[in-house]
Amino acid sequence: MNYEVVIIGGGAAGLSAALMLTRARRSVLVVDGAEPRNKPAAHMHNYLSRDGLSPLDLLKHGREEVEGYGGEIVNDDVRSVSRVGDGFEVELSGRVVSARRLLFATGLVDEVPEGLRDRWGRDVFGCPYCHGYEVRDQKLVVFGEEMKVALVRQWSADVTHVPSVDGIEVEDDRLVAVLSGSERIPADALVYSAPVKPRDELLLALGAETEETSVGPFVRTDAKGRTSVPGVYAAGNVTDPTAIVIVAAAQGAQAAGMINMDLITAAG
């Protein structure tokens, strides 16, 4: 199976890119592992005209739009990617496909401690822009840098900063307290700065260069999503740890426009 573009990752960035490319009449395959970063969250915010929508509903509608223009979407894992001539081969679990261009929209992983995972995206979260309004004027505990404390105080005056989180207490499916050292701090929500890890193994295997960010090395791209590897693009959280959903979608669209022009130029 030959495609002009294979997009690895079917979140907001990947589907946004696929939509633009399929509308440009490009043959597109989206390969998605069906594990979006925001899956635990019931709602997504700051997405104009879609504020409060379930993130899974956004992906459902996005898939339908892409498929409506002829794009192909598969739930599968990419085993390896290699350059072949001026294109690429992508090994899936049961077949190998070829592509003239690649877009990685594989996102990142929040490395949340075991004891907090069941509450993640609910009353334990990392992004106050995404969840702060829903816990406004409540008792909030912040684990992270001092700057985040100042930020969180935009949503509540009742904010406690802790140097560690050693446990939490939950009653009736609600967070009620955070344990820090010998202290028990009553809390309605915990703002927790979890380490993050980009899903960039395949990008690095292709030789993509990285650059340092405030949370570690991420694959470097230009403003249009081009990596240091010719023909390979990246968009969303795999390259930008700060991108919220609407920004990731915009980055996907920008990369798609660049990919389309790249293919036109290559056709000469």
Low-confidence stretches: none
- Structural class estimated from helices and strands: alpha/beta
Shape: elongated
N→C terminal distance: 24 Å
Q: Please, how many helices?
A: 6
Which range does the strand content fall in?
A: 25-35%
pLDDT averaged over residues: 97
Helical residues, percent: 10-25%
For the CA atoms, what is the radius of gyration? 20 Å
Strand count: 18
Taking the sheet with the most strands, its summary is:
7 strands, mixed
H/E topology pattern:
EHEHEEEEEEHEHEEEEEEHEEEH
Your description of this structure?
The chain has 268 residues and is of the alpha/beta class. It has six helices and 18 strands. Strands 1, 2, 3, 4, 5, 6 and 18 form a seven-stranded mixed beta sheet that branches.
Q: Layout of SSEs?
A:
Elements: E1 2-8, H1 12-23, E2 28-32, H2 55-68, E3 72-75, E4 80-84, E5 87-91, E6 96-104, E7 108-110, E8 124-125, H3 128-131, E9 140-143, H4 146-152, E10 159-162, E11 167-171, E12 174-180, E13 183-186, E14 189-192, E15 196-198, H5 201-205, E16 210-213, E17 216-219, E18 232-234, H6 245-267
Parallel strand pairs: 1-2, 1-6, 2-3, 6-18, 8-14, 9-10, 9-14
Antiparallel strand pairs: 4-5, 5-6, 7-15, 11-12, 12-13, 16-17
Helix pairs in contact: 1-2, 1-6
